[in-house]
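Observation: inputs received (chain + adenosine-5'-triphosphate).
Thought: call the complex predictor directly.
Action: predict_structure
Action Input:
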Amino acid sequence: MHLAHLRLRDFRNYARLDVDFSPGFHLLLGDNAQGKTNILEAIYLMATLRSFRGVGSAQMIRHGAKGYFVGGKIIGQGEREIKMFWSSRERNLTLDAQPVKKLADYFGALRTVVFCTEDLQLIKGTARARRRFLDLLLAQTQPGYLPLLQRYMHSVRARNALLKQRSADDAALESFSLELVKLGNELIRARRELVPKFSPLARLAYRRISNDAEELRIEYSPSVKNDFAIELLNSRVREKTFRATLVGPHRDDVQLLLNEKSAAQFGSEGQKRTLAIALKMAQAEFLAGINGSAPILLIDDVMGELDVKRRSGLLPLLENARKTSGQVFMTCTEENWPRELGKDLQRWEVKTGTLHKQ
Ligand SMILES: Nc1ncnc2c1ncn2[C@@H]1O[C@H](COP(=O)(O)OP(=O)(O)OP(=O)(O)O)[C@@H](O)[C@H]1O
Ligand SMILES: [Mg+2]
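Observation:
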């Protein structure tokens, strides 16, 4: 799969951009604050309808403009065309000139994996970041997962709303619990099955990047230990104190262990960064394995974060991704682009919201 054309109008610091990309390795070079990350953000936005910077759409509209347009032509098994327009008044998303009605039909038209500094939250951040990572992997590979997750979260919110009422009626709570347990058990099963499939890929990626410096182990750490229904019942008294649902997959976590020690608590900065990159590398491989074609890799500023040894461990992985996948976009400031990457990369100069082939 590769992005063959990108069109931006009033997106971040790009007033107008029309650019053709071939498959292969693209290096976006430029000084700080020129618009390198903005390009990756636009591509990721088409793939996921979100910014990887965790901001809302209003912030992506170019200052002074009314709305942004992001469009792309994607070549995979066939050719697909995405067009999205967003303003405070109007939102419009089409795939192959048809309005998108069901998001499940849309996701998959363009698949990307992003590597960015925010990935460190996977290690340093709260359990929520790790749950989102699992959920994204499952949503990208199992068609029914996203609707299931949405129904479960809806049921958590409804149950919490009931618990917040002064006189929470036990019978009503009971019926909410039934739904919660049914959906929750499905989520738990999907996550439990995913981790052992994903974990060897991450372990291997970590080994390669770190040159076997330490061993990674990933362990699913569910909130429900045995029986959801029983544990929910046992938490009833505490639930009434806290007025919230205290057990269930919305409280799951994933343990990331380096040589059997928590990476968050004991890892060095470099180890945490290596781990974040390894998780993303593994995500890309996992998606490629299931979908039969590799996702587009969007790599923002990660090279500068690694020491020379770890860099040289990462480069072959990138090279491999380029060979098998088709397309990699990587941002760099002029000084730190890895010359080791070889000749057949395509260099682009990014300067104040313009892109020029070098
Ligand atoms: N909504 C917006 N409208 C106009 N300009 C914006 C908007 N949002 C961000 N910018 C501008 O975009 C530029 C930042 O772009 P970007 O984050 O892509 O930089 P970069 O090239 O990745 O820089 P760095 O090397 O520092 O990461 C800044 O000049 C910023 O002011
Ligand atoms: Mg940037």
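Thought: report the result.
Final Answer: The chain has a mean pLDDT of 92. Residues 12-13, 30, 32-38, 59-63, 331, 333, 350 surround adenosine-5'-triphosphate (ligand 1) (CB under 6 Å).
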